[in-house]
Specification:
mainly alpha
Length: 76
């Protein structure tokens, strides 16, 4: 919209977001390939080794939840 004001970091953050998103997007299908970071699984393994009970609560702003749940389920 004309006259809209943005936070000074808006365009820089948006540019960085797009760069990251592009790294996970298939160039042919344009589908975003969601991945769970290895460090997440390292944390889960450490919690299990230490017998620390935990609950995972997943939140999303998109349609990636089924893929993330499937990835985590296959890791166990």
């Amino acid at each position: 919209m004309a006259g809209e004001k943005f936070h000074p970091a808006h365009w820089g953050v948006l540019d960085e977001y797009q760069k990251i998103k592009d790294k996970f997007t298939d160039p042919e299908t344009k589908k975003v390939n969601y991945t769970v970071f290895r460090s997440f699984y390292v944390m889960l393994e450490k919690l299990r080794r230490m017998n620390i009970p935990f609950t995972i609560i997943l939140r999303t702003f998109g349609s990636d939840l089924p893929e993330v749940v499937e990835d985590i389920a296959h890791h166990n």
